[in-house]
Amino acid sequence: WSVVFLGFLGMEKMVACLYKRPNAVCRLICFPWAGGGTSQFAQWGKLFSSSIEVLSIRLPGRDSHPLEPFAKDMTTLVNGIASVLLKELEEKPFAFFGHSFGSYISFAVALHLKEKHGLEPVHLFASGAHAPHSEAFLPIKNLPICDLDDEDILGHIQSLGGTPPQVLQNEDAKKHLIHTFREDLRVLQTFFFEKPENNIPFSCDITCFDGSEDEPHDSEAWRDLTSGDISFYKLPGGHFYLLEVSNEIFLAKHITRCIENAGL
């Protein structure tokens, strides 16, 4: 009983689901961007029909758990997420959506589930991210985090956009955001993936989304990672194009269609 209870606590702590849909055909698991919390994706539940239940991953050290230690590396983070989600993912089909940093986490979790448990998403949605084995990803991984001061990190966060002004105007909130972003970047730099020769990791379809004004991402290289279909969409806006209401509506409709077409 205590093990079940602890598992339930882990689930409540690591996953936010504001719109519970026990009869949903499929779950959409959403992974947040660096420095980001769960609130945006948790609200996505209301954009989907009753056939899709939206779960938003809540990473340690933020939201209602600011005193928790941050994850030290990608492997620890992936193991934690996979163990908490495993029962749910064995129970019914699931799809993953990740934005930016969240795309890399969702890919790493999907890879872990495939290799260790033979489970695969029905669809992988990657947003605002390079393919994880792309050379374009290397500059991010080689940023000297320990040499970056808070002002450098804040400048980078502001250049990406997407942060509510009230966060930047509140000293404590701003400090917490900078600290969270730094810790997320540290985790990202511990993520290593080399595409194995003659081995395509996935068979599910992959869709890549990007903001039309964002720095270009190496999306093409995602083709190497699945034997399924791959498609690309550019939506109006910068790195945080997905915060625009019209884009959210497009994403929800498109994701729904992809999941329905997976023939569940």
From TrEMBL:
InterPro entries: AB_hydrolase_fold, TEII, Thioesterase. It catalyses: (9Z)-octadecenoyl-[ACP] + H2O = (9Z)-octadecenoate + holo-[ACP] + H(+). Pfam families: Thioesterase. Keywords: Fatty acid biosynthesis, Fatty acid metabolism, Hydrolase, Lipid biosynthesis, Lipid metabolism. GO terms for molecular function: fatty acyl-[ACP] hydrolase activity. Residues 27-255 form the Thioesterase domain. It is an enzyme of class 3 (hydrolase). Its EC number is 3.1.2.14. GO terms for biological process: medium-chain fatty acid biosynthetic process. Belongs to the thioesterase family. This is S-acyl fatty acid synthase thioesterase, medium chain. It comes from Centropus bengalensis. The gene is Sast.
